Q: What sequence folds into this?
């Protein structure tokens, strides 16, 4: 009885910290999004929004390449040495990254900072592995919704704050993000327990600590391998939001950083409602597989509508529809996690993170360049919504490997 009595407060404290960590991490991302067009225009010396978007695409891709290469290493390290040190190390490096971005006068140093952050970006993957450690199998999809809800809540406050402080200059949101991240690191250092017990750890193996090694390891679980492919393809579509939204809103609707921040905050509200309040009921009603399929269907419709939106109010009208895409990731995460043994949860989350990163390499190259060509003055066509049309295509295609994975279970 004593063990059960003490275990619950530890579990509750761990869930609280994971919730706060993901929320603050997404706040950091949201803080800087409204000012990225202005910052890149300043550093590149080019007043054209399309050119700034192209630079932003390459900046995102450089982050994602490092994340793709090193996420499997961090995932395997967390399986061998625990979640806590990997999570805290990631937070500390992210704080350094924000400080460099806040102070650099050079575009090249901005790239270096983002590559450094990509090399250490284990926050979400390690948080999900943490969840898998402490959640019973039948509740993992629901618990994964906690991290999704935290991300949504962070996205409510992050862009809103970023839009406000961004009015004082494009550097201010980066200082704010650094302060929040270092504060979160300190909180974690003092309060975060370890979730992976020593008897559930496994020896670190270099052959499994790379993307190719993980792909080979996941061949033992064919259903999971196909679902990982579905996640990678879907994320090419999903990442159109962080890659393009700020540039699209500025070009299409002539929005200021405050306007962009407000719209992203409203998106965060939608995601938080879906993943914090509705997902439990929807999973109970439909189950994980049908919940994911419903999310895919709504996502395709929302992206198509955004592609052809001509007025700012239309974006706000579409936010409730867009928010239901938040059902997809927790449902698929739950399906995959339940098919993997306990001592490989970090490896699975490393695989998810690596494929997310691969998608994050592909998305900026496709979407940012597509936006550039679709908005360049004197170009063959003017269609700022082109990236969202492409995203709808990728989201629809992702259903195919997902269905194959379901049939392989």
A:
């Amino acid at each position: 009885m004593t063990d059960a009595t003490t275990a619950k407060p530890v579990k509750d404290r761990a869930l609280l910290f994971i919730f706060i960590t993901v929320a603050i991490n997404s706040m950091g991302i949201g803080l800087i999004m409204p000012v990225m067009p202005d910052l890149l225009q300043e550093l590149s010396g080019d007043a054209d929004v399309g050119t700034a978007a192209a630079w932003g695409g390459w900046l995102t891709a450089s982050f994602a390449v490092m994340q793709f290469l090193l996420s499997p290493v961090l995932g395997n390290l967390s399986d061998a040495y625990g979640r806590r040190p990997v999570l805290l190390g990631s937070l500390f490096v992210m704080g350094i990254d924000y400080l460099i971005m806040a102070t650099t006068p050079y575009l090249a140093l901005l790239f270096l900072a983002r590559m450094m952050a990509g090399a250490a970006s284990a926050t979400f993957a390690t948080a999900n592995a943490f969840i898998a450690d402490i959640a019973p199998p039948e509740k993992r999809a629901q618990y994964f919704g906690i991290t999704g809800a935290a991300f949504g809540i962070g996205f409510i406050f992050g862009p809103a704050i970023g839009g406000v402080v961004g009015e004082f200059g494009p550097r201010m949101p980066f200082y704010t993000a650094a302060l929040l991240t270092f504060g979160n690191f300190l909180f974690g250092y003092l309060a975060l327990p370890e979730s992976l017990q020593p008897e559930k750890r496994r020896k670190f193996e270099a052959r499994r600590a790379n993307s190719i090694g993980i792909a080979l390891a996941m061949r033992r679980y064919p259903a999971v391998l196909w679902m990982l492919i579905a996640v990678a393809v879907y994320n090419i579509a999903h990442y159109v939001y962080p890659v393009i939204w700020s540039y699209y809103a500025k070009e299409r609707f002539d929005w200021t950083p405050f306007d962009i921040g407000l719209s992203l905050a409203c998106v965060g509200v939608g995601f938080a409602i879906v993943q914090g309040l509705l997902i439990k009921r929807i999973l109970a009603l439909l189950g994980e597989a049908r919940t994911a399929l419903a999310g895919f269907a709504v996502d395709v419709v929302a992206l198509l509508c955004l592609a052809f939106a001509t007025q700012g109010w239309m974006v706000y009208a579409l936010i409730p529809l867009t928010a239901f895409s938040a059902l997809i990731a927790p449902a698929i995460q739950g399906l995959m996690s339940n098919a993997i043994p306990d001592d490989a949860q970090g490896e699975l989350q490393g695989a998810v993170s690596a494929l997310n990163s691969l998608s994050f390499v592909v998305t900026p190259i496709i979407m940012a360049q597509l936006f550039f060509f679709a908005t360049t003055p004197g170009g063959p066509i003017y269609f700022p919504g082109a990236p969202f049309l492409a995203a709808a295509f990728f989201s629809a295609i992702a259903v195919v490997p997902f269905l194959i994975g379901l049939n392989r279970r």
